Amino acid sequence: FVFVKQKTAYEMLRSLVGSEMCIRDRRKRMRGGTGSVRIRHFFRKEELACPLRLVAELRLSPGDSIGLHPHHGEEEIFIVVAGKGEISEDGIAWEPIGPGDATLTPSGRSHTVRGTEGELVMIAVIGACA
Length: 130
Ligand code: MN
Prior knowledge:
Elements: H1 6-12, H2 14-17, H3 20-23, E1 24-28, E2 36-41, E3 52-60, E4 65-70, E5 74-89, E6 94-97, E7 102-105, E8 110-128
Antiparallel strand pairs: 1-2, 2-3, 3-8, 4-8, 5-6, 5-7, 5-8
This protein binds manganese (II) ion (MN).
Manganese (II) ion is lined by residues 69, 71, 76, 111.
């Protein structure tokens, strides 16, 4: 099995997980949003035999956002670990999110998220529909 445990695990399991360099990512104005989003990919797509295309930790500071974007043929789950933010489905109304909250954006819907207080830390999982 592949055990991802911070930097130590990347070093121990370099052949399976890859170097820390290639699984940490920083996206500016992600999906037309503001600021930047720090991304830590736990697994690479090619390591996943089942139809998951993303399993990652996202970090947004207050004012950072991921712009409104659709998901077609896939669904995305966010699980909030720390910090506070707001999420909107289809860009209509904003809902506050905080630690312990989870959201599911089904196929065919859009979402946008922004950090509001502290560093918003979320686990994001995207799975393809059967
Ligand atoms: Mn999304």
